[in-house]
TrEMBL record:
SUPFAM superfamilies: Gamma-glutamyl cyclotransferase-like (SSF110857)
Source species of the chain: Streptantibioticus cattleyicolor (strain ATCC 35852 / DSM 46488 / JCM 4925 / NBRC 14057 / NRRL 8057)
Gamma-glutamylcyclotransferase AIG2-like domain ranges (all copies): 29-159
Superkingdom of the source species: Bacteria
Taxon lineage: Bacteria, Bacillati, Actinomycetota, Actinomycetes, Kitasatosporales
The protein's name in its UniProt record: Gamma-glutamylcyclotransferase AIG2-like domain-containing protein
Gene3D superfamilies recorded: Gamma-glutamyl cyclotransferase-like
TM spans (from-to): none
Length: 161
């Protein structure tokens, strides 16, 4: 049973959300591909709209080439991780950034056939763990990538070959 004022995350931890930005769904975003600083979609959608971006790692996940853009897949129990950045939108830009990222990632909350699912995950920064929104491959896409996709060794889109 979930304690009052808490939200159960997929990794079975609880977080008090009664007086935090999570209560409003205002988590930062973990980005790992074309939304990273220096990449094309960061310039298009995020430049000038973020308070900060810090390096981060999503553990227990694998990165696949799209091609053209990457997909993150859950891989619990593996030592692998994905290198990216934790992006914190400016408060006044948050709602617009969220809507634009959902549109870019072909994500509609509650839809069964999303290209990407936006899920809360814990990422790791030099300052410690942080909960963040992460866009992971939708079910059908993940199934296809596991069977036929090309993994990006080292889990870093910027260092792919």
């Amino acid at each position: 049973m979930t304690p009052p004022g808490a939200r159960r995350f997929r990794d079975h931890r609880y977080m008090d959300t009664s007086s935090s930005p999570v209560a409003e769904g205002r988590l930062p975003f973990f980005v790992y591909g074309t939304l990273r600083p220096g990449e094309v979609n960061h310039a298009r959608l995020l430049r000038g709209r973020t308070a900060r971006a810090v390096p981060a790692v999503l553990r227990g996940a694998l990165l696949y080439d799209g091609p053209g853009y990457p997909y993150a897949l859950d891989a619990p129990g593996t030592p692998d991780g994905i290198h990216g950045d934790l992006i914190e939108p400016l408060p006044e830009a948050y709602d617009d950034v969220l809507a634009e990222l959902d549109r870019l990632e072909d994500h509609t909350p509650g839809a069964p056939d999303n290209l990407y699912e936006r899920l809360a995950r814990t990422v790791h920064t030099a300052a410690g763990p942080r909960d963040a929104w992460v866009y992971l491959a939708g079910r059908a896409t993940a199934r296809h990538l596991r069977a036929h996709g090309r993994r990006i060794p080292g889990g870093d889109w910027k260092r792919r070959s």
